Amino acid sequence: MDRQTLRDWVHRYNAQGVAGPRDRKAPAAKPKLSEEQEAEAASWVRSGPDLAEDGVVLAERSVGGLLRRLGFRRLSVRPQHPQQDAEALEAHKKTLPPYCPELNPIENIWQFLRQNRLSHRVFDSYGAIVEACCEAWNALAQAPDIIRSIASPPWAEVDV
Questions:
Q1: 12 by DSSP, 3-state: which?
Q2: Percent of the chain at pLDDT above 70?
Q3: What confidence tens digit (pLDDT) does each residue in 54-112 have?
Q4: Which residues, 6+ apart, have CB-to-CB distance to 135 below 8 Å?
Q5: For the purposes of burial, counting CB atoms within 10 Å of the CB of 94, is it exposed (0-12), middle (13-18) or buried (19 or more)?
Q6: Per-residue confidence (pLDDT) for residue 159, from 0 to 100
Protein backbone atom coordinates (compact mmCIF):
# COMPACT_ATOMS: atom_id res chain seq x y z
CA MET A 1 0.00 0.00 0.00
CA ASP A 2 1.39 3.37 -0.86
CA ARG A 3 1.15 6.57 1.12
CA GLN A 4 -1.43 8.21 -1.17
CA THR A 5 -3.88 5.29 -0.85
CA LEU A 6 -3.66 5.41 2.95
CA ARG A 7 -4.17 9.18 2.90
CA ASP A 8 -7.25 8.80 0.68
CA TRP A 9 -8.69 6.15 3.01
CA VAL A 10 -8.18 8.38 6.07
CA HIS A 11 -9.91 11.30 4.34
CA ARG A 12 -12.82 9.06 3.26
CA TYR A 13 -13.09 7.63 6.79
CA ASN A 14 -13.15 11.10 8.32
CA ALA A 15 -15.79 12.28 5.84
CA GLN A 16 -18.06 9.18 5.67
CA GLY A 17 -17.25 7.05 8.71
CA VAL A 18 -16.73 3.27 8.51
CA ALA A 19 -18.36 3.00 5.07
CA GLY A 20 -15.91 5.50 3.57
CA PRO A 21 -12.84 3.30 2.95
CA ARG A 22 -14.84 0.50 1.29
CA ASP A 23 -14.18 -0.16 -2.37
CA ARG A 24 -16.36 1.84 -4.67
CA LYS A 25 -17.18 1.34 -8.31
CA ALA A 26 -15.02 3.58 -10.46
CA PRO A 27 -16.98 6.27 -12.26
CA ALA A 28 -17.74 5.30 -15.84
CA ALA A 29 -17.07 7.54 -18.79
CA LYS A 30 -19.90 9.88 -19.66
CA PRO A 31 -22.04 8.37 -22.46
CA LYS A 32 -21.61 10.06 -25.82
CA LEU A 33 -25.30 9.64 -26.59
CA SER A 34 -28.25 10.88 -24.56
CA GLU A 35 -31.03 8.49 -23.58
CA GLU A 36 -33.15 9.77 -26.45
CA GLN A 37 -30.33 9.19 -28.93
CA GLU A 38 -29.78 5.67 -27.57
CA ALA A 39 -33.50 4.92 -27.97
CA GLU A 40 -33.36 6.23 -31.55
CA ALA A 41 -30.29 4.07 -32.24
CA ALA A 42 -32.18 1.06 -30.89
CA SER A 43 -35.02 1.72 -33.31
CA TRP A 44 -32.47 2.03 -36.17
CA VAL A 45 -30.98 -1.32 -35.24
CA ARG A 46 -34.41 -2.92 -35.10
CA SER A 47 -35.46 -1.44 -38.45
CA GLY A 48 -32.07 -1.91 -40.10
CA PRO A 49 -30.86 1.39 -41.67
CA ASP A 50 -27.19 2.41 -41.63
CA LEU A 51 -26.22 4.50 -38.59
CA ALA A 52 -23.72 6.57 -40.60
CA GLU A 53 -26.48 7.65 -43.02
CA ASP A 54 -28.57 8.96 -40.17
CA GLY A 55 -25.88 11.31 -38.90
CA VAL A 56 -24.56 9.41 -35.89
CA VAL A 57 -21.03 8.11 -36.23
CA LEU A 58 -19.74 5.79 -33.52
CA ALA A 59 -16.41 4.09 -33.19
CA GLU A 60 -16.59 0.42 -34.10
CA ARG A 61 -15.62 -0.64 -30.57
CA SER A 62 -18.31 1.46 -28.90
CA VAL A 63 -21.20 -0.05 -30.87
CA GLY A 64 -21.02 -3.36 -28.98
CA GLY A 65 -21.33 -1.67 -25.59
CA LEU A 66 -24.21 0.47 -26.82
CA LEU A 67 -26.06 -2.56 -28.18
CA ARG A 68 -25.56 -4.45 -24.89
CA ARG A 69 -26.95 -1.50 -22.90
CA LEU A 70 -29.97 -1.44 -25.20
CA GLY A 71 -30.66 -5.11 -24.56
CA PHE A 72 -29.37 -6.58 -27.84
CA ARG A 73 -27.33 -9.78 -27.69
CA ARG A 74 -24.90 -11.27 -30.16
CA LEU A 75 -26.23 -14.42 -31.74
CA SER A 76 -24.05 -16.76 -33.73
CA VAL A 77 -25.63 -19.25 -36.05
CA ARG A 78 -24.65 -22.88 -36.07
CA PRO A 79 -22.33 -23.52 -39.01
CA GLN A 80 -23.79 -25.51 -41.85
CA HIS A 81 -21.99 -26.89 -44.88
CA PRO A 82 -23.32 -25.39 -48.12
CA GLN A 83 -23.75 -28.84 -49.71
CA GLN A 84 -25.37 -30.44 -46.68
CA ASP A 85 -28.27 -32.72 -47.57
CA ALA A 86 -31.12 -32.27 -45.06
CA GLU A 87 -32.87 -35.52 -46.07
CA ALA A 88 -29.71 -37.59 -45.64
CA LEU A 89 -29.11 -35.97 -42.25
CA GLU A 90 -32.62 -36.84 -41.04
CA ALA A 91 -32.30 -40.41 -42.35
CA HIS A 92 -28.99 -40.78 -40.49
CA LYS A 93 -30.55 -39.49 -37.26
CA LYS A 94 -33.30 -42.11 -37.50
CA THR A 95 -30.81 -45.01 -37.81
CA LEU A 96 -28.79 -44.08 -34.73
CA PRO A 97 -29.85 -45.83 -31.52
CA PRO A 98 -30.58 -43.67 -28.48
CA TYR A 99 -27.81 -43.34 -25.90
CA CYS A 100 -27.98 -46.52 -23.85
CA PRO A 101 -25.00 -46.97 -21.47
CA GLU A 102 -26.58 -49.97 -19.74
CA LEU A 103 -26.11 -51.96 -22.97
CA ASN A 104 -22.43 -51.02 -23.22
CA PRO A 105 -20.44 -53.67 -21.31
CA ILE A 106 -17.47 -51.43 -20.50
CA GLU A 107 -19.80 -48.83 -18.97
CA ASN A 108 -21.20 -51.54 -16.70
CA ILE A 109 -17.70 -52.65 -15.69
CA TRP A 110 -16.60 -49.11 -14.84
CA GLN A 111 -19.81 -48.61 -12.85
CA PHE A 112 -19.05 -51.81 -10.91
CA LEU A 113 -15.50 -50.62 -10.19
CA ARG A 114 -16.70 -47.19 -9.05
CA GLN A 115 -19.35 -48.67 -6.75
CA ASN A 116 -17.37 -51.57 -5.29
CA ARG A 117 -13.69 -50.64 -5.36
CA LEU A 118 -13.30 -46.87 -5.82
CA SER A 119 -16.15 -45.29 -3.86
CA HIS A 120 -15.97 -43.60 -0.45
CA ARG A 121 -12.27 -42.87 -0.70
CA VAL A 122 -10.21 -39.69 -0.60
CA PHE A 123 -7.09 -39.62 -2.72
CA ASP A 124 -4.00 -37.54 -1.95
CA SER A 125 -2.87 -37.05 -5.52
CA TYR A 126 -3.54 -37.88 -9.14
CA GLY A 127 -1.02 -40.69 -8.89
CA ALA A 128 -3.00 -42.21 -6.01
CA ILE A 129 -6.14 -42.17 -8.18
CA VAL A 130 -4.33 -43.90 -11.04
CA GLU A 131 -2.84 -46.47 -8.66
CA ALA A 132 -6.25 -47.23 -7.10
CA CYS A 133 -7.81 -47.63 -10.57
CA CYS A 134 -5.03 -49.99 -11.64
CA GLU A 135 -5.41 -52.06 -8.46
CA ALA A 136 -9.19 -52.26 -8.93
CA TRP A 137 -8.82 -53.19 -12.60
CA ASN A 138 -6.21 -55.89 -11.87
CA ALA A 139 -8.36 -57.34 -9.07
CA LEU A 140 -11.36 -57.48 -11.40
CA ALA A 141 -9.24 -59.05 -14.16
CA GLN A 142 -8.54 -61.95 -11.76
CA ALA A 143 -12.29 -62.67 -11.52
CA PRO A 144 -13.60 -63.60 -14.99
CA ASP A 145 -16.94 -64.81 -13.57
CA ILE A 146 -17.67 -61.33 -12.20
CA ILE A 147 -16.73 -59.76 -15.54
CA ARG A 148 -19.00 -62.20 -17.36
CA SER A 149 -21.93 -61.46 -15.02
CA ILE A 150 -21.43 -57.69 -15.35
CA ALA A 151 -20.92 -57.61 -19.10
CA SER A 152 -23.84 -59.88 -20.01
CA PRO A 153 -26.83 -59.38 -17.74
CA PRO A 154 -29.66 -61.87 -18.30
CA TRP A 155 -32.18 -59.14 -19.18
CA ALA A 156 -29.98 -57.99 -22.09
CA GLU A 157 -29.83 -61.38 -23.83
CA VAL A 158 -31.82 -61.71 -27.03
CA ASP A 159 -32.93 -65.01 -28.54
CA VAL A 160 -33.01 -64.93 -32.32
A1: helix
A2: 84
A3: 666 677 678 788 888 888 877 777 777 878 888 887 777 766 566 776 667 888 888 89
A4: 117
A5: exposed
A6: 67
- Please indicate, yes or no, whether the overall pTM of this predicted structure exceeds 0.85: no
CB 35 within 8 A of CB 68: no
| Largest distance between two CA atoms of the chain | 88
Q: Using alpha carbons only, what angle is made at residue 143 by residues 142 and 149, rounded to the nearest 5 degrees?
A: 150
* Residue 142 burial class via C-beta count within 10 angstroms: exposed 0-12, middle 13-18, buried 19 and up: exposed
Chain centroid offset of residue 95 CA: 30
**Cα dihedral sign for 143, 148, 149, 150?**
positive
Q: What b-and-e string marks burial along 50-67, b requiring 16 or more CB atoms within 10 Å of the CB?
A: eeeeeeeeeeeeeeeebe
Please, are residues 119 and 132 in contact by the beta-carbon 8 Å criterion? Answer: no
Up-side HSE of residue 54: CA atoms within 13 Å toward CB?
14
